[in-house]
Design a protein that fits this description.
Length: 107
């Protein structure tokens, strides 16, 4: 998932960016992730859970889209995501990183 965001972002100085192409889809992607997070059958199986992917993608989207994500992310979704991520050994480090990204955004 980070590969496509990095590819769309282009050059580090922002001179070659196509990242805006995906912004219209971000609310739908986040909505899908919210539904996954609410499904205990999907999240509770630590071996098959997409929790780490969801946390990583939210953190990456905040990094790439920055302030635009404030309109997309709901505080209760972020709190639940970070809480569930921190509770699992496999995702606790990733949850801390995502929390830092959200704090930089002011969330």
């Amino acid at each position: 998932y980070t590969g496509f965001l990095s590819a769309l972002k282009g050059a580090e100085d922002g001179s070659d960016t196509q990242v805006a192409l995906i912004m219209g889809y971000v609310p739908h992607i986040v909505g899908f992730m919210e539904q996954l997070l609410l499904d205990p059958l999907c999240i509770d199986d630590e071996d098959k859970s997409p929790l780490g992917t969801i946390i990583g993608l939210i953190g990456d989207m905040v990094t790439v889209f920055q302030g635009q994500m404030k309109d997309v992310l709901k505080p209760d979704f972020c709190a639940m995501l970070l809480q569930k991520g921190a509770a699992k050994h496999k995702t606790s480090k990733l949850a801390r990183w995502c929390q830092k990204q959200l704090k930089l955004l002011g969330m």
